[in-house]
Amino acid sequence: MISKNEIHAFKLLPATVTTLSKKLYVSPASASKITNKLLNNGLATKQRNGKAVLIEKEKTILAQRLEEIITLFPRLPLENILTHTNLTLIASMSYPLTIKELGRTIGVTRQWIYKTIRQLSLYGIILKTDDNYTINPVHQKIYDFATTYMEFQHYRHASMLTDDAVILWQHGNEFLFKTKQNLTSVQKTAVTVFSDYNLPLVSNSKYYYTAKRPLTIADVILHTILIDRTSKTYNAYALLLMEKTMPTDLAKKARLYNLTTHIQILLTYLRTYTPTTKYLPACKDYETLARQYGVRKHADI
């Protein structure tokens, strides 16, 4: 994402392209390319000052966080760390995951994950506990920059798909969003595909998920929960699809979304039909839904 020259240029702002060309010892054309990359990544902005065009640091959280890590970690080779692929991996480590799980989320091989983790571990950025990897708290600011960078990329991607996209959840290079538009280039998910399982839920919004991997029923269930984890309605419909399909990969997929505990609570509910949290439906309400949609023909709660 950010080359050595781009980091140096960012430090020199505010400046004109001509000034950057001289101070970076590059041609005006190269200085212009460096400037355009900073502008495209939301790190810089243009301001006309008379006949000259001044390049200034953008007043975004992303620019502020880049300035923070440049100040906090002057000895780290940030030009080697802040690549797009490295930032994608770092942003995927908001909770502990294994190499296999990280590879599945990002859509790369385990060999690539292992190689990248080994490189970042040399700088002390990543820690290993058992088979799980997380960010070293000492380098939390680098993680903050990575997540803000990925959010910026996601919103730019979503805005290209539709002008009313609202991102509900994001992790690494994947994100869940809603829109009122019908999209064909992104995978449908959550309650938008419930009608495929004869469980229609009327909604003004349509839900989509960007990912390199194909989605399974388990993903659909988990995305329904992610719309609003505290909603009785969405949890009830997640329960209906769980009971109807009983996907074998649900517990494994729950780890990818940091929903392991939540899914355990729902599975316990399906065994006991005793609500233990405020977001679980009353047993009689769930029984009515289950019978209404043919999940269960007779009352057995």
Describe this structure in words.
The protein is α+β, with helices and mostly antiparallel strands. The protein starts with a helix and ends in a 9-residue tail after the last helix. The model has no long low-confidence stretch (mean pLDDT 92). Helix 6 (84-91) crosses helix 9 and helix 10 (217-227) runs antiparallel to helix 11. The strands form three sheets. A four-stranded antiparallel beta sheet has the order 5-6-8-7, sandwiched between helices. It has a two-stranded antiparallel ribbon with strand order 1-2. It has a two-stranded antiparallel ribbon with strand order 3-4. The chain has 14 helices and eight strands. The protein folds into three domains: 4-57, Arc Repressor Mutant, subunit A (Orthogonal Bundle); 61-139, Arc Repressor Mutant, subunit A, CATH 1.10.10; 162-292, no CATH class. It has helices at residues 4-12, 17-24, 28-40, 61-72, 78-81, 84-91, 99-106, 110-122, 140-161, 217-227, 232-245, 250-256, 260-272, 283-292; strands spanning 44-49, 52-57, 126-129, 132-135, 166-171, 174-179, 187-188, 206-210. A hairpin with a 2-residue loop joins strand 3 (126-129) and strand 4.
Key words describing this protein structure:
301 residues; alpha+beta; 3 domains; two-stranded antiparallel ribbon; 8 strands; elongated
Output the structural class. Answer: alpha+beta
Mean pLDDT: 92
Order of helices and strands: HHHEEHHHHHEEHEEEEHHHHH
Considering DSSP H and I runs of 4 or more, what fraction of the residues is helical? 40-55%
Radius of gyration: 23 Å
Poorly predicted sequence stretches spanning 5 or more consecutive residues: none
* Structural domains: how many: 3
- Order of neighbouring strands in the sheet with most strands: 5-6-8-7
How much of the sequence lies in strands comes to 5-15%
For the terminal residues, how far apart are their CA atoms? 55 Å
How many beta-strand elements?
A: 8
Helix tally?
A: 14
Please state the overall shape, judged from the principal axes of the Cα atoms. Answer: elongated
Q: Tell me about the biggest sheet?
A: 4 strands, antiparallel
